[in-house]
Amino acid sequence: MYSSPEYREFRDYLHANGMNVTPERMEVLSLVLKQKGHFRIEDLIRNSARRKKSISRATIYRSLKAIEQAGLIKSIRSIHDEKIFEIVKGHHDHMICELCGAIIEFYDLDLESLQDKICDSQDFLPSRHVMKIFGTCSICRNKKD
User: Fold this and answer.
1) Torsion of CA 64, 66, 70, 73, to 10 degrees
2) Are residues 101 and 82 in the same domain?
3) Which residue of 18, 54, 105, 137 lies most exposed, with the fewest beta carbons within 10 A?
4) 43-59: per-residue pLDDT in tens?
């Protein structure tokens, strides 16, 4: 049942860190992998409650932490400082609407090149970066008109 690369990677992470592979942890990963786009802890709690095997809130929190530490998901902060998660799928940055909270992903090769050029000019070796641009999305701007 849990045979995809993500499940194997998570099981390997748990074993390597002396943690038990439990049905609840694997079920939380299953809930995560069914998410489309960005999601909140409350989304998982709600989806878990709809299933026959409801998982406690505490187990979901602890499992998400382990899934994030395993590198399968990452978190960002919303405009209300709420933790929002996404499945790791390659580097990208975010634009966040300050009115509705929409999160728009983007990737720009020119921007990445400029960041590399700036780091080179300062003799700085980057390991990672996070870019968040805050503003107003087109939907909210059009609602104002």
Assistant:
1) 10
2) no
3) 18
4) 998 888 887 777 888 99
